[in-house]
Amino acid sequence: MIEQPARGRSAWQPEVDGKLTTFPAERIEQLFTAPEVSGSWPQAKKHTQWPGGGHVGDPAFDAFYATQVQYLGDNAETQRLNQQAGAALLDRIGPAIVLTHSQSGPFGWLIADARPKLVKAIVAVEPSGPPFEDTVLREGQARAWGLADIPITYNPPAADPAQPPGERQEAPDAADLARCREQRPPVRRLPNLAGIPVLVVTAEASYLSIYDHCTVKYLTQAGVSVTGMRLADRGVHGNGHMVMIEKNNMEIAALLADWLSVSVSDH
Question: Can 102 be counted among the known catalytic residues?
Answer without folding.
Answer: yes
